[in-house]
Protein 1
Amino acid sequence: MKLSCLSVSLFSAIINGEMTIREYAHLCKKLELDGFDLGIIQLKNHTPNYVNQLNKDFEEEGIKPVMITTYPDFTHPDALQREREFEYLRHDIALASNLGAKFLRITAGQAHPETPVKQGIQLVVEYFRKIVPVAEKFGIKLVYEDHSKPGAWSFMDFSNPPHIFLEIAKQIADTSIGINFDTANILVSGNENTLEVLSFPAYYILFLL
């Protein structure tokens, strides 16, 4: 089994410049991890010089990112904003590819009060399906997560409730999108039996280990 780490406890330090991404990569290498994960909010930009320097740092440290985590919001009530979110995700896929990552963690969107559950599910499935060819073009595996409330958002994750998460997972089961299952987020939803969620129905739950 290969191990990677998402630096949740170090997010602020990296964003504020108290720790560089290279220093984080060095720490992960020292811990004998096989790779590490990065949040999109930790990356300053996608300019050639910046990305090239990061790749040089990763090569010299002997370790590289495995997954980039991002926060698309496809449940936004504004149609134009949903299109912006799609374009942001296209950018994130290209950036993940440029950094040598294999996976890109995606979310459904926020639980906007104006967005009914049925409509939200339809929108998420629609945009997920539309982005798949872009990810496949760049060799990136998209993995859908049952999130809670990241700092980048104002509302909880639309698909934090297990029944919504499972319905979306069911409707994208025939695509190349995998599942990045976070047991803590299920607990946040109030469901203490994560095994129940994992086993119902088990045939479309894909694990990213």
Note: The chain has one domain: 8-204.
Protein 2
Amino acid sequence: MPSTRSSSLRRRWFAGLMSGTSLDGVDAVLVRFEDVGSSPDPTHRQGPGPDARDPAVSILALHHAHAPFPSALRADLLALQTPGGNDELARAALAATALAHLYAETLKPLLDIAGVSVHEVAAIGAHGQTVRHQPAAGYSLQLLDGALLAERTRIPVVCDLRSADVAAGGQGAPLVPAFHAALLGSAEARVVVNLGGMANLTLLGPGQPVTGFDCGPGNVLLDAWIGHRRGLGFDADGAWSATGKVLPALLQRLLAHPYLARTPPKSCGREEFDLHWLLAQAVDREDAADVQATLAEFTARCVADAIAEHAAEAQAVLVCGGGAYNRDLLSRLRGAMPHRRLATTDEVQLDPMHVEAAAFAWLARQRLSEMPGNLPAVTGAQGPRVLGALYAAP
């Protein structure tokens, strides 16, 4: 049964703050959730309940805002993802405080626009910025000054959401499959694909355990290459990749990356897929637009091959994250999965750009309800864990 504390939170707002591997900025949401269906603990659902149409939670209301990274902060965060450099500890601490200020500055106008006071917000779920992801070595590091964020907003903050899972032997990622299962479980076998900086899958099916994993790059290589060759932050609508042709030899070299052959549970980051790795594939000798087209095809193949291997029975694929707005990438996904129905989460009335931030709002709700937020089948942890450090509001 849900705890009394969980029940008291049902009508409260939760905030989610997300800045991902793509380093494109901060997404903030304000969400009100409602428990529905027959499962009191969606993180442990083994499939839909007796009424397979009902998810474990629904969203009653949602407001969203986005703020780009200031160029100096983005450069600092990107630089900190490569070991070395002078005074790295101080630079990391300063970046963590700068990110807390940016999070607070993104959330405040959203509260004003939504007409929600800080006293109506039960907690903020804040992801922070990943600068190292090394679960095999026992850590995953997200920069954020949670105490400062609580001080600036006057709202309790839940952050450092991966550490408890990693301490239990897990990958600490991906964390969004538990939320996907809670919100998007259905009577049909379906896959939710989050195309952020990295791409991760959530495999949902009636009567089956919820599973998921990072299947490879999402936008990270596409963004890195267009930045390297054209000085742009991203390939809007996939317009540049659509002008190129796929280079078969390069595609095969990319598909030979050893991460892709690893068995789940698994998660990845810039440690596996970044511009340095890409340049080692001799791409600067090729036509730049053809390389971008090949990267789009590589990203689509990583997703399609993972679904074919681990969710062959899936009838539908729902896409969220920034990659959902890349028309060329979605076209390539459809081409790689011609027998599956592909749509974005707009189909279930949830904007693709809202999903991941909403997941962190839900994880804050789980933390305050003292309920687990991880899925051991996804992360490889020894068992369910309550996730996140809690900083009280002043």
Note: The first strand starts at residue 13 and ends at 18.
Protein 3
Amino acid sequence: MKTNLLDKALFLLLARMTALSFAACGDDDNENGTDDPDALVMDQKEYLQNSLVRVDDAGNFMYRVCGAPLDADTTVLYVGVDNLEEAKTLFKQLFVPGSTFNESGDNISCTLEKKGGTVTFAPADGSNGVLADVTFDGCNLVAVSSLHFMEKNAWPENSGSAYKVGDRIWKQTLMYGEQCWICLREAGNGQRGVLYYLGDRSVSANEYKPYVPTTYPTDSEVAQVLQLLDKSGVWCGYKYYSTRSYSLYVAQQKGLRGPVLEFSFFNETDALDLAMVGDYYMNDGTVKNGDITLTAAEKEACIGIVVWKGNPTEYDKQLKKLHPHCTHGLVAAKYDARYGEGIIWSNADIEIGTDMNAGFANTYKLRTCNIDKNTFIYAVDAVDNYPYNTDESLFAPSCSSGWYIAAMTECETMKEGEKIWKAQFEKIGGSLEHGFWSSTELDDGRMYIAWGVQGIKRTTSKVHPVLAF
């Protein structure tokens, strides 16, 4: 998965438990032919922006990382905490590790470099449950005007977290296959939930193959996960800087071996029960009413359209095992996996994905074939590498099943709502047309579904990813 990126230079994140500093360290020699890494300079304002709200390269809103709006002004964000001390800790984690803070009692301020402005934390009077206010003086952030820490027991009622602390969820890692992940933090109160997996053996830089996350962590979230687990000296995933991938490593010294720590994020499931065919599915796992007109930024953040409303875990046992919370329906991706390019299904002469209904289970089994080049399934490789331009705004959110190839019956069910969803794809600049692969391998000549086995497996068709939510 994304081997074209993972084969590039690996980069090391060297850290102590109280402060993280970033450095690059390649699998191979760097461009200068030396072993010395090139330091990554962390811009304080950009770091703060990404700790609260993610934006794309053009500066448009993508999704919130920390904080949630509780009223009509969506730039006013709230975070739920147990007490003022927790609020102070979370506030400091929003900044580049090693930042200088001016403290006077419970008041804290940080002046950003390069005339980036001053951010101030001040205790509140406790009205409406607010414990502290954060203001930004001369620091203009996208989609953030102020931040407030609120007592959790004052937080408005919501549908709760998809997972509870301690819940065990089976997920895939690139290095070890299927592994048991544990819920470290629940979703809600203005914070995404955290799932983590810790390997049982130490590996080196050359051995490490990071799990491909569906939503990328901010640096402050990396610090939070490590602090919650009280861990150092571990490999902990990878993320993007622009179009290049960098592995993150936390160790006491360069070259130290360590176990693999993987983590991903999930959101609350509120409002998903109300989703309808034709609604817009966003990259933060939320759904917007299909009748509204999206802004330009919202169109960018929209990764697909709801094409079927129902519970796919009722007929897909593998989906129920790995993603039991994905009970609301199916979403078709904004684009084809290869942008409409035709693709040969496979070079295998065996039937593997034989389920007529369960696309997630089919794709799961077919994916195992790609370890062996003699049974390589090109269509699965295409969906596993979607999107090809490494645009992280199009990745499936971690609260979903992740992208897969729909089974035959799922494709037919999706077609029933075609009159509704087809126009919706045009509104977001995407498309979904006839003639794409299903994950069901049957020797059949139906027009709508390209089956991909035996006599017709060498024909070409499109790969259009779907996900369960």
Note: The CA atoms of residues 214 and 275 lie 22 Å apart.
Protein 4
Amino acid sequence: MKNAGIAVCFAMTALLAAPVFAQVEGQLGGQGEAVVTILPKHDGEVPASVANQDLSVKIDGKNAKVTKWAPFVSPNNRVELVLLIDSGARNSLGRQMDEIAQFIKSLPPNVKAAIGYMENGNATFAGPLTADHDQVLKALHLPGGSAGSSASPYFCLSDLAKRWPSNDSGARREVVMVTNGVDNYDRRFDPDDPYLQAAVTDSVRARMVVYAIYWGDQGLANRTGAANNAGQNLLAEVTQATGGKSFWEGSGNPVSFEPYFDELSRRLKNQYELGFASPLKGKPEVETLKLKLSAPGTEVSAPQQVLVVPRTQ
């Protein structure tokens, strides 16, 4: 009888403890998602069909399981796009206003858009995020600020990430920055610039895909070769980390934005949703992502960093 009582007690203890063990085990797994762009290597070609088995994903150097892989082709897929213009940009940006307007008008109906300006470290919106693209254009104007009036474009990007003008968690978030990329608080190229790194982390956590178009600032100090190089390289750090792309034309301002907008439009039409399961110790973490694709004739843009959260049961 004594042994039987011990066995019953042990069984009851195990049953009581089981939910706790299951809960802990569930917290050991992580999950995440990313927006991946796949384009043909040559213009005019149709991107190759890419299947789940063509992918190899590693998170923080460890193999991850692909749980979802699908193109964003449903007419119900939602996109939110913010054009973020540096308030210190040179007034010659006025030559690009028609092309900016044409790009906004060309966005498909499923894309909500807004125009914001980098002002004193903030992303200041001149109008709402809306699918009414004519209304969006009412907010378009020359920046009219002084040199460095954005403070740092990376402050402004962090502010946008923290105060995204929508609560739609199911919409893709795309950002197009028009700036010289110079951090006035650390004017040299430093990949460990704390403001840059904070902007990358905030952008990844907010699930933003960031693109950048280089345009010079009004300040004389920002017109040097060193400033051009630093700004362009810092922008490349942000865009590559989030799965976007930087556009520039040598050390000067581009003659036209039209080729960049054409590529942006193609990218928005050729994006995939990647879902994955990976190891995670507990709390949400920003981790490195490495994606390999076995599909000849394709060009892949995947974020270098992703947010991994505890897996839901």
Note: The radius of gyration is 23 Å.
